[in-house]
């Protein structure tokens, strides 16, 4: 079981170091946001249902029914692109 303890210790050290690095360099948060938004955008492009289907959400389902899946994915993709551009702008402009 020593190997398991080593793995857990290494994971704990990794997360601790990553947190300390993020506190020392706040711009890393913008990169994380850009990465997550890019994953969401790729999901919209490849029509992954989890990226736009909102079970139990009245607001999201209203626009999905109103625009249809293709129109909803398009406009959601436009909004995500604007968010990516804004995050990239903040990444390069914030000191």
UniProtKB/TrEMBL annotation:
<dbReference type="Pfam" id="PF15562">
    <property type="entry name" value="Imm17"/>
</dbReference>
<protein>
    <recommendedName>
        <fullName>Immunity protein 17</fullName>
    </recommendedName>
</protein>
<feature type="transmembrane region" description="Helical">
    <location>
        <begin position="70"/>
        <end position="92"/>
    </location>
</feature>
<feature type="transmembrane region" description="Helical">
    <location>
        <begin position="28"/>
        <end position="50"/>
    </location>
</feature>
<dbReference type="InterPro" id="IPR029087">
    <property type="entry name" value="Imm17"/>
</dbReference>
<keyword id="KW-0472">Membrane</keyword>
<keyword id="KW-1133">Transmembrane helix</keyword>
<keyword id="KW-0812">Transmembrane</keyword>
